[in-house]
């Protein structure tokens, strides 16, 4: 593994880890994002005054329908997370790394921009944005798992590390919630995530192969 290509491989490994940790599996932090959406009055029109309250009495509204709407969005996105593994895997096999990653960037950036410019009045767009975010994240993970092939006997360790990073990326929405509580708007956070598409594109063309990383790795293999 030692040689002139080692710095490139290490850069590919570390940036792939960051990509999985910071972007790929953010959906699973949904509960933290729901807090922000509720504060921003998303689907609040579904809330009804609690039964039995007098018109001049202040009480908690019944927001069961609002909670069900958020649950439906998460259910749909979670379904896409599992259902799309087959078609995204086929896309990766058939069209290879560059095409798969550009498709991932398209879905992911479209989703983050949609969320950034969504308001309570257009909350229904979350039904489109969250599944798209999930599809982009799955493609990021799939295209990064092959990086383990660059490191021979450490291949399985790297693959499991990336899977762990994918699951840990749920913390991203928690961070967005904490930033929101410090007066960093939801729009600002998601515009930042959208701007990161420049980094994803750069990584696609500079640190990833055009095709697939073979295993076992042939002598003098190069990419990027």
UniProtKB/TrEMBL annotation:
Species of the source: Sciurus carolinensis
Subcellular location: Membrane
Keyword annotations of the record: Membrane, Transmembrane, Transmembrane helix
Spans through the membrane: 12-37, 70-92, 99-117, 123-147, 159-180, 186-206
Name this polypeptide is given: Solute carrier family 43 member 3
Topology with respect to the bilayer: Multi-pass membrane protein
GO CC field: membrane
Highest taxon in the source lineage: Eukaryota
InterPro entries linked: MFS_trans_sf (IPR036259), SLC43A3 (IPR027197)
Stored Gene3D superfamilies: MFS general substrate transporter like domains (1.20.1250.20)
């Amino acid at each position: 593994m030692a040689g002139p290509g080692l710095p490139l491989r290490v850069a590919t490994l570390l940036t792939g880890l960051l990509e999985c940790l910071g972007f790929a599996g953010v959906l699973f932090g949904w509960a933290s994002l729901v807090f922000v959406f509720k504060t921003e009055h998303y689907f609040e029109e579904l809330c009804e005054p609690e039964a039995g309250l007098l018109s001049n009495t202040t009480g908690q509204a019944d927001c069961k329908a609002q909670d069900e709407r958020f649950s439906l969005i998460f259910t749909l996105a979670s379904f896409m997370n599992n259902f799309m593994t087959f078609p995204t895997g086929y896309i990766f096999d058939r069209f290879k790394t560059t095409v798969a990653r550009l498709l991932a960037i398209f879905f992911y950036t479209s989703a983050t921009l949609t969320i950034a410019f969504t308001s309570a009045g257009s909350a229904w767009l979350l039904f489109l944005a969250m599944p798209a975010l999930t599809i982009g994240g799955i493609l990021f993970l799939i295209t990064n798992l092959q990086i383990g092939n660059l490191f021979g006997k450490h291949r399985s360790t790297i693959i499991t590390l990336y899977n762990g990073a994918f699951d840990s990326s749920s913390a991203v929405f928690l961070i967005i919630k904490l930033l929101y509580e410090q007066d960093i708007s939801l729009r600002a956070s998601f515009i930042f995530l959208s701007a990161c598409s420049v980094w994803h594109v750069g990584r696609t063309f500079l640190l990833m192969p055009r095709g697939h990383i073979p295993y076992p790795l042939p002598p003098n293999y190069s990419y990027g």
